[in-house]
Amino acid sequence: MHELAVTEQVLTIALRHAAAAQATKITHIHLVVGRLSSIVDDSVQFYWHLIAAGTIAEEAVLSFERRPAQMRCLACAAHFTLADQRDFTCPACGSPDIIVIGGDELLLDSMEIETGAPADPPALPAVGAPEME
Ligand SMILES: [Zn+2]
Which residues lie at CB < 5 A from ion ligand 1? Predict the structure, then answer.
């Protein structure tokens, strides 16, 4: 499954960063997902519970932010974001010869951790996660 491999990658990266920061717990992970990605949020969350069990990321809340796809026109070389996913033509010249150059990936954007040392300032400001559907 695609999501399983991606989720494993995210966990590996998260744990590596957490170890470097001497975290005792990962509480929140912010992921950025390209709009064209086939990643299903619920699947990632599902796999997370399986593969993160027993790690400090076990109880981490995952939040997903969708970002528009970055496109490039092969006819006129214009770069643009894909605003309407039913309209696969270049807004500059109208050519249908456009390619995806970004926005089909899943990235670990940031995460919140606990270090077990109350004197330490948090690594990231506490921000409310947007409600995801
Ligand atoms: Zn064009």
Answer: 73, 75-76, 78, 90, 92-93, 95
Distance 83 CA to ligand 1 centre (A): 15
What sign for the dihedral angle of Cα 43, 49, 55, 58? Answer: positive
Chain segment 58-77, per-residue pLDDT in tens: 999 999 998 888 899 999 99
Q: What's the CA-to-centroid distance between 70 and ligand 1, angstroms?
A: 13
Scan for tokens 């299903």, then name that residue: 40
Query: pLDDT by residue (tens digit) across 5-33?
Result: 889 999 999 999 999 999 999 999 999 98
pTM: 0.69
Cα(110)–Cα(101) distance, integer angstroms: 22
